[in-house]
Amino acid sequence: MRTQVGIIGAGPAGLFLSHLLKAQGIESVILEARSRPYVEGRVRAGVLEPGTIETLGRLGLDARMRREGLVDEGLDMRFRGRTIHLDLPGLTGKSVMIYGQQEVVKDLIAARVEAGDPLVFEAQVTRIEGIETDRPRIHYTEGGTDKVLECDFVAGCDGYHGAGRATMPQDILQVFEQVYDFAWLGVLARARPMPDMTYTNSDRGFALCSRRSMQVSRLYLQVPADTDPNSWSDDRFWDELHARMFDEGRTEIEEGEIFQRDLAKLRAFVAAPMQHGRLFLAGDAVHIVPPAGAKGLNMAVADVRVLSRALTEFYRTGSRAELEGYSTLCVERAWRVVRFSSTLTGLLHKFGHHTPMQRNLQLAELEYIAGSRNAQASIAEQYVMLNYLPDYP
Ligand code: RFL
Ligand code: PHB
């Protein structure tokens, strides 16, 4: 098999890239290790930033999101039983959209399959060779058979454990990483959600009330990193959530059947450069942020918007200028996003190593935000706009 751009991974990065390239008449093949039901069923992100929403619109793939997504105009942060309300449109002129990552992924897969464009599931990439030549080759296994995809460029959109980053010459790759000793226990519950996305900092730890629809709540609790999600009974989950949200009367948060549980480990990670020869990496393959800023998916989409424009320039004019600048541009933005996500994580979570001094500084920071419109505007701007790229597709 031969194509122009060989894409590894059918997560948000790989799928968006394939559609952005197709819109410019550039062919690609996606190789995805997992099955279609597995990829479509993976519960992850829920918040789409304006840049991601607009790109879906330009691709003509936003019909279901417009119908079923929930526009989110408020971001609440609780502490000491009080609520800081950030009015996103009032502070930034923009809002975000609640629409599950797996819904975006389903829409992008359906459109690609319907168009008859190649997307191979259960195709595990084992090796990439020739990235310093004009004809890189991707080796993969499909149905027990070894196969090769020849291409002009390889896009490693294959997540944190993928083959793309492992292929980079390790002597040029710089890696920065911080692993947290706590995780997020996430559940989906059939219960009417809170009206606004609500984060809380309590003495018992962090919690977050988000949603997927008007009938389904997406709820998170900070837990130790080695927690087994099934070790938490429903009653224990609800008791803890009410307590951390300062909902002692249990009047605010509606309870319902918990039908899905997962555990997300928290880490901040940046690998640079994001390219070598004809290999380009995007998304979780090269950067991970702790989920408190709701940024990972949006950052992955921003990467491939930059990459698709650079590849388009190359195929139209033969110029490599934008391709050569890809990593520099994206790494700089990645650091800004890591900074924001790490800051929010530090502001809202309970840290075992915190002294009373540090706990009081955390609360003082929240008090300052509560009393300062400028501080609120700064958080709102970063929550909504950090991946905004007005000059990109
Ligand atoms: P993905 O989605 O991990 O996709 C990579 C794909 O590559 C495949 N793959 C391979 N295929 C072939 N051969 C190989 N050798 C392969 N190795 C791997 C994998 O099977 C997979 O399908 O990476 P991508 O596309 O970079 O997308 C990144 C996002 O998925 C991720 O950043 C977000 O989910 C992070 N995130 C959030 N991001 C947001 O923007 N907003 C949010 O609200 C948000 N909430 C979250 C989150 C992540 C969470 N977890 C579970 C970590 C909430 C949580 C709980
Ligand atoms: C989600 O709805 O899954 C969600 C919302 C906000 C975050 C992370 C995840 O910061």
Structural overview:
- The protein is an alpha+beta fold.
- It has a domain at 5-71 and 95-177 and 267-350: FAD/NAD(P)-binding domain (3-Layer(bba) Sandwich).
- The protein contains twelve helices and 19 strands.
- The chain has helices at 12-23, 36-41, 50-58, 63-68, 88-92, 101-115, 163-167, 234-244, 296-317, 321-348, 356-371, 373-385; strands at residues 2-8, 28-31, 47-48, 70-72, 74-79, 82-87, 96-98, 119-120, 123-129, 137-142, 145-156, 174-190, 197-202, 205-211, 216-224, 257-272, 275-276, 279-281, 287-288.
- The strands form three sheets. Strands 1, 2, 8, 9, 10, 11, 17 and 18 form an eight-stranded mixed beta sheet that branches. Strands 6-5-13-14-15-12-16-19 form an eight-stranded mixed beta sheet. The chain has a three-stranded antiparallel beta sheet with strand order 3-7-4.
- α1 (12-23) crosses α6 (101-115) and α11 crosses α12.
- The two termini are 28 Å apart.
- It binds 8-demethyl-8-dimethylamino-flavin-adenine-dinucleotide and P-hydroxybenzoic acid.
- 8-demethyl-8-dimethylamino-flavin-adenine-dinucleotide is lined by residues 8-14, 31-34, 39, 44-47, 101, 124-125, 157-159, 161-163, 184, 186, 264, 283-284, 291, 294-298, 300.
- 8-demethyl-8-dimethylamino-flavin-adenine-dinucleotide binds next to α1, β9, β12 and α9.
Keywords:
binds 8-demethyl-8-dimethylamino-flavin-adenine-dinucleotide; flavoprotein; 12 helices; single chain; 8-stranded mixed sheet; 4-hydroxybenzoate 3-monooxygenase; 38% helix; 31% strand; FAD/NAD(P)-binding domain; binds P-hydroxybenzoic acid; 393 residues; alpha+beta
